[in-house]
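Sync notes, pocket subgroup
Present: LS, DG
LS reminded everyone that the earlier model was apo-only. Rerun requested with acetyl coenzyme *A included. Inputs:
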Amino acid sequence: MPGSRITALGHFQPTRVLTNDDLAAMVDTSDEWIRRRTGIATRHIAGDAESVTDLAAEAAAKALATAGLAPSDIGLVTVATCTAIDRLPSTAAQVAGRLGIPNAVTYDLNNGCAGFCTALACADHTVRAGAARHALVIGAEKMSHITDWSDRSTCVLLGDGAGAAVISATEGDEEGAIGPVVWGSDPTRSHAVRLVDEWHPKFAQEGQAVFRWVTGELPHVAREACAKAGIAPGDLDGVVTHQANLRIIEALVRQIGLSESAVIARDVVNSGNTSAASVPMALAKLVERREIAPGGRVLLFGFGSGLSWAGQVVTCP
Ligand code: ACO
């Protein structure tokens, strides 16, 4: 059975940047509070006419160009998203249309902030099974569409963006470079991250409960992903967790047992929480800036609504 590996990455964010001072003019908050409690300085916000498909297609086009593949090489397009308004056709089908990908299986996947790592595992399994040779795996969100701009406890957190990865079957005896996934959910806690208001759905969460869950129960899951990939946490070159906020990231990675030289993704500072887009976007930027060298081994780890988690160790292109 062949393995698979990530061969190229891409990312895209809308041009409009919303600062903490901009938010302080909208709700009762301050740059100081937001930075101290969340680490976030800015987030990118899509225009009214800019859709999840627009964001996804931009990131995917970059990944495809970097991979040097023809659109017809792609056998699977999957978009992890919880904010796509168009359910038919799926965002993935629309991206395939935009990029001229003729015959791929296309589907969207909603697993909240664990969505990209979940989609990556599904694509890896598809390639391993021989059902596709090359796949586009995308995380794309327009969180601003489900943001309650009058709720200071959530509107300061969220942002828009997209990240994409091309994955391809390995050749000959080459080992797979996408490690076994560790995934699951705890539906007894599902109320902790949810949408409220049926007619105009808005993001809501019990922030402290989520914080306690992530920092109390997920470090051992992250270590399990390393164990399944046959790597000690101390030998990782980097960690890209879901970019929920800086405090939660630092509290989580502190418990994994990394070396001092391991690179920790902190894209949340400039991008806010972009749900399923946060892991591929942060990974693509680290690789683009060469902060993680080709061949570097990185733990990807998503968590959020469900409450769900998914993570795996990957080798960077
Ligand atoms: N500005 C000023 N004050 C604020 C703001 C704000 N933007 N937001 C809340 N406050 C106030 C509250 O009203 C409260 O005031 P009170 O004590 O007078 O009632 C006080 O600050 C403390 O509020 P908390 O909600 O308890 O603040 P906390 O320290 O818990 O920080 C935060 C909130 C940042 C959301 C934190 O709970 C957290 O990081 N939770 C984790 C959430 C998470 O990771 N979710 C990810 C999964 S879901 C997803 O990613 C899509």
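DG: The pocket of acetyl coenzyme *A is lined by residues 29, 33-34, 37-38, 113, 152-153, 156, 193, 205, 207-208, 210-211, 244-245, 247-248, 273, 275, 304-305 (CB under 6 Å).
LS: DSSP finds eleven helices and 14 strands in the chain.
Action: DG to write up.
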